[in-house]
Design goal:
alpha+beta; six-stranded antiparallel β-sheet; 16% helix
């Protein structure tokens, strides 16, 4: 990622949660600790089903008196509805600001040139009133500016950032093993912890109860994690959504996200899983990448 490149992530949506109960409201439902989020720090979190299955993933940043939720735009409406269900009598206002705010991603090195910036995931500074944060999932994904669309291009000009194709950004994200596109395909198909949310700083095992906490904690404490969502590289042929993946005659996984940057749920501790092996589906050959940040 070039230090002058910026990627306008028009496929990201923005919700804003405000009100005197906003902090308690989020703390009771998300997988991370909302107390980590302040003017100087942002976090990655998820909303799980009561069974601990994946539903939504998002970045949370402090903004004025409330919290910005940065999520995939295709999930925005469904996330808005889900949050509204949990709202009940809480004194909380939930707004969809996706038509007013936009996310712009740029190089980590550029971020570190800002006064007060720290080389820590989630570190947050302000450009005027707008948050700029080093990606809380992985520093190598760079920083993201969340800004009003009307101010975007003037701000990018002043910051000497050049608009670049977003495929470069998502290629890097895939190489790092971090899915961000077509996340709807994962809903209710795997546990949040199988999405590597612990390694991506998205689960806090010290906080109190939240939706899906019981099964998430059980898998962690009993060391029952035997599958992970991993990026795959297509060598030849065509992938089909839901394809089973084989090493020889042994089934080792299933394709869950089938797009330009595919991911599969892999039995990565299976005795038949070996890094660098060429696997096969019905009509394809592929390789499975295991990111260096995943430790066995």
């Amino acid at each position: 990622m070039n230090t002058q490149n910026v990627y306008i992530l028009e496929d990201r949506g923005i919700l804003y949660i405000n009100g005197i109960d906003a902090k308690e409201f989020l703390q009771n439902i998300i997988s991370n600790d909302i107390n980590k989020v302040n003017e100087d720090n942002s976090c990655f979190a998820s909303l799980l089903s009561p069974q601990g299955k994946f539903l939504f993933a998002f970045i949370i940043a402090k903004h004025k008196s409330g919290f910005i939720i940065d999520c995939e735009k295709s999930q925005t409406e469904a996330l808005f509805k889900q949050l509204s269900i949990y709202k009940l009598r809480s004194k909380v206002e939930i707004m969809n600001l996706s038509n007013e705010f936009v996310v712009a991603a740029f190089n980590r090195g550029k971020f570190l040139k800002f006064e007060g910036a720290k080389d820590e995931p989630g570190n947050t500074i302000r450009y005027r009133e707008d948050p700029i944060l080093l990606d809380p999932r992985n520093k190598d994904l760079g920083a993201r500016l969340i800004i009003n669309l009307e101010k975007l291009y003037l701000s990018l000009k002043k910051l000497e950032l050049k608009d670049s194709p977003i495929d470069e950004y998502y290629k890097l994200s895939h190489e790092l093993g971090i899915p961000q596109k077509n996340m709807n395909e994962l809903q209710n198909k795997l546990f949040g912890i199988e999405c590597n949310f612990e390694e991506l700083n998205g689960i806090d095992f010290q906080k109190g109860c939240y939706v899906g906490q019981e099964n998430t904690a059980r898998i962690k404490l009993k060391n029952k994690l035997s599958k992970r969502l991993l990026p795959i590289d297509l060598i030849e042929g065509e992938l089909i959504q839901g394809d089973l993946i084989y090493n020889g005659e042994f089934e080792v996984g299933k394709v869950l996200i089938n797009n330009q940057y595919p991911f599969a749920l892999i039995k990565y501790l299976d005795e038949h899983f070996v890094r660098g092996v060429v696997f096969r589906c019905k009509d394809a050959k592929l390789k499975i990448k295991k990111p260096d940040w995943i430790k066995e």
